[in-house]
Amino acid sequence: MAKKKSAKPRLVFIFFLAAMIFLVWKFFNSGDSDGVYDAINTGGANKESNALICDAIDIPGYQIAQVDGRALDVKADIDQDGRQERVIMYQDANQGGIRYKPVILKIFSDDGGCAKEEFSYIGNIEEQNENEIGDLQILPDFWENGRQAVMLWAVQTAYGSGSSNFLHFFAYENGKYIRVDGPEFSNLGGYKLNGGVVAGKEIIAADFVWSAGEAHFDPHYYKVSIYEFDGSKYIVQKTVTTQNKYTGDIDEMIKKEPDLLSAVD
Ligand SMILES: [Ca+2]
After folding, report:
1. What is the mean pLDDT of the chain?
2. How far away, in angstroms, is 47 Cα from ligand 1 center?
3. Does residue 30 register a pLDDT over 60?
4. Ligand 1 being an ion, which residues bring their Cβ within 5 A of it?
5. Helix or strand or coil: residue 250?
6. Would you tell me how many other CB atoms lie within 10 Å of the CB of residue 239?
7. How far apart are alpha carbons 91 and 134 in whole angstroms?
8. What is the distance in A from the centroid of ligand 1 to the CA of 151?
9. Backbone angles phi, psi at 168, to 5 degrees
10. CATH number reported for the structural domain that contains residue 125 in this entry
11. Nearest to 55 by CA among 66, 69, 35, 40
12. How many whole angstroms separate alpha carbon 147 and alpha carbon 140?
């Protein structure tokens, strides 16, 4: 009777031990790459193909650009789907201080570390090579449509005394990323977002007029142009030449000559 009873608990114990060994083995074998992809692809779609569409952030020969020590690698929900995109500005990695290659802007969706390239802009328009960067900013509700815009101030320079400057704006509309070009100005000129709360509604651009006898960096008369956004592009509303000479500060021009802004609207 005692023998009959002792066989069953032993079998139960062996089965229990085998189950524990299996669970421990399973635990230590779950941390492989499949586990990582599971974490990335929280949507639960075909994980094999999703894993393959992660895009490289690095561009050979390029580095992430910096302006005043600030890396131009920012997160913002540009397409307003509730998830942040990663906006990265790249510049030629040439360390000699001279950059020949055009700047590149890329927008990635960034789902738990799996970057996917959604948009790319290469700074080479109308055969002009934008090889340096003045600034990159994310601007909220830029055109009063609730959407953010990425503003790129790109610069074409041969590292002499002159340069050409270009403003580009990128936003997401009707299912795709769009580019809207703003004013162009020289290195002695400048721009001012003058739309108030709706920053992109109006932009003032100023550029110098070279008069006889003036040196490059002397004060100049300026041509001031008012650009207004018509819903899809910027249109010059008026251009006025200043009465006084300036060094390029638009606020100073407006303060001294408020008439520059009149007759608009
Ligand atoms: Ca988004």
Report:
1. 85
2. 21
3. no
4. 77, 79, 81, 83, 85
5. helix
6. 14
7. 12
8. 17
9. -125, 145
10. 2.40.128
11. 40
12. 7
Residue 4 Cα, ligand 1 centroid: separation in angstroms? 69
Range of the domain at 120: 63-187
Instruction: Give the Å distance between the CA of 148 and the centre of ligand 1.
Output: 11
- pLDDT tens digits along 211-265: 888 887 789 999 999 999 999 999 999 999 999 999 999 999 999 999 998 855 4
177 and 216 part of one domain: no
**150-166, pLDDT tens digit by residue?**
999 999 999 988 899 99
Residue 91 forms part of a structural domain: yes
CA distance 134 to 244: 27
- Strands 124-125 and 132-139, by their bridges, are unpaired
pLDDT tens-digit map of 36-57: 333 333 333 444 555 567 999 9
Residues comprising the chain, all counted: 265
Please give the backbone phi and psi of residue 115, each rounded to the nearest 5 degrees, phi first: -80, 140
Non-local CB neighbours of 139 within 8 Å, separated by 6+ positions: 148, 149, 150, 151, 193, 199, 200
Going from the Cα of 81 to the center of ligand 1, the distance in angstroms, rounded, reads 5
Beta strands in the chain (DSSP E): 62-64, 66-67, 70-71, 73-76, 85-92, 104-111, 114-122, 124-125, 128-129, 132-139, 149-157, 163-173, 176-186, 190-193, 202-209, 221-229, 234-241
Residue 127 domain flag: yes
Q: By CB neighbour count within 10 A (0-12 exposed, 13-18 middle, 19+ buried), where does 261 fall?
A: middle
